[in-house]
Every structure is written in C-alpha cells, then in structure tokens.
Amino acid sequence: MLAAAFLPLHYVLERDLCEGQPQVVRPPRRARIVVAGDLMQHTPQLTAARQADGSYDFSESFRYVAPYFRNADLAVVNLETTLSRGGSYSGYPCFCSPAELADAMVDMGVDVALLANNHCLDRGAEGVRATADILDSCGIVRMGVFRDSVDYAAGSVRYMRAGDVRLAMVNYTYGTNGIPVPKGVVVNPLDTLFIGRELAQIERDKVDCVVAFVHWGNEYERKPNRDQRRVAEFMKRNGVDIIIGSHPHVVQPYEIDAEGKIVVYSLGNFVSNQSKRYTDGGLIVTIDIEEDSAGELKYYLGYTPVWVSRPKYTLLPPAVGDTLRMGGEAREAYRTFMTDTEKLLSAK
User: Is 127 helix (H, G, I), strand (E, B) or coil?
Assistant: First the structure.
C-alpha cells in the first residue's frame, strides 16, 4: 500500500575506523509500483455483483489478484467508469457504477485511480463530481480529471512517495468519445503542448522518478501505432522515466530503451465483459525501482497476465488459473489468452 508522503529516510550509523567518526550510510532507495489496465463495469458485471438486498459486492472479481496490489508500495488502476451513489447505474456505452466498486478497490489495495480516459464524461459534470467525491471519501488518489480549475491546480501533477522513491505522476487521454468537456471541468488532454507545459513545471529537485499514464492508441490493435511511439518519445525527451498505456482493450508490447526507461503501450483489460480473443484479460505490471551503487535508479519490469473467468468475473493469474477446475470451453479460452499474451511479449 501507499507509503506516507515524503517521510524522511531512515539512516544507519557505522563507525569509520580510519577517521574514528560516525559515518552516515543511507540504505539504497527501493520501491514497487503495481499497475493494472482497464477496470470496466459492463451491465452483466453489475448484475453479477448485485446482492439480494440491492447492494453490490465486487470483491469476487479481485479475490485472487488482491495480494499483488496489497504488497506494492503504490498500486494503480485505470478506472474506466464513473461512480455514483444514486442507483441509476449503467454499462456500455455510458458507464456508471455503484460506489461499492470503490470500496472493493480499497479492500484490494488500490492507492491511485486514473480517470483520464474516454469514458470519464459519461455522466457529464455531475458524474465527474460524484466520482471525485466517492474516491476522495475512501482515500483513493485520483488523477487526470478534475471538478474545476482549483481542483486541477491542486493535483495536475501528483507528487507521491512509493517506498523510498519520490514520484511525480501525470495522466492524459486522447479524448472523451466526442462528449464536450463541461464548463469548469478539466480533463487532461493527450496534447504535446499541454503535456510539455506540465512536465516543465515539475520540481525536479524534489522528484526521483516521473511516471506518465496515458490513454491512447487504437482499440483492439495489438501493436502500438505511430502516434503512440511519437508521444512516448516526446515524453522521454522531456524527462519521463516510465510510461504506461491503456485504451486498446488488448495487451500491447513493452519497450525498455538504452537508458532503462520503460514504455508499456497497453495493459489491456483488467476486468470487463469483453470476451473476444485478446480482450478477455490483460496485464498486471510490476515495476521495481532500485538504487545502484552509483546512486542511480534502475527500473525492472515484471508482468502477470490475468484472465477474466465468467459468470462471476473472477480475475485469474496463472498461479491460480493453471490448476483451478473449470469447464473445457473456459479452459481453452484461458490457455489461448495466456499463450497469445506470452507470444506477444516474448517477440523481441
């Protein structure tokens, strides 16, 4: 879970035998960031989560993947639905989910919800405010979409601490499905002029690492397009160290350049009702940040493919899915997703 922001590092005193004086030795900085893709709520998912008393319980979806998030220093998901306490819930094409979804995210260990995506305005300004209120009330940090200019000024760049590492994080989307941004509301656009201004404002002396979360690319395409690569290069030139993408609803490859900077082009779906080949799962990405002997931060990427088991929409990582009893058709779909994903990510 998220460490308290900007706590002082603990130091160890060692005796310098040559000088006879105590010497301060700082332990190497370390952090683990875990990120998942599109957390969606289609109508059949709402139906599956509805309880006899009319309440909603989404915990079944996350029962097997929660440890990945709880064991992280910082856990992030792309929340591709608005939230409401009003009871008028809906799936595609205009998503609105019960506030109990945020409760399940808290229980799972999520620290940050990414809101800059093409469904962030599905319920207009009221949906933006309701989503912000619900996330704020349960302590989940939100990024990318703001109630108003004051809200934007307070959180356009999120300064947070993960483990021993100070982060600056930003979040952008290519669009909002053609829905105009309501007056006063701010949605961070995937525009290089806008992005450049924000990155230039980061207080670099107070930050060890810059992370960008971007909603981009073409839906259902398993390779990044020219625009994705162009924006990624722009971000890296402007000081971004880690770039993690969403929106295509399928997994796309990752890249690590000569400087060790990471780009994950698409995590695919986290949980959804999409069931066509390549869309019925996604990645949980783990990025370990470690300081080397020269004091430089190094980034190490790991990934866990997760497949969505219906009708309860249970997320299955290989550690569970490989041995869990399931019907023949489900087993074949599970194996196909895992094989497709591994082939894509291993093709370098």
Answer: helix
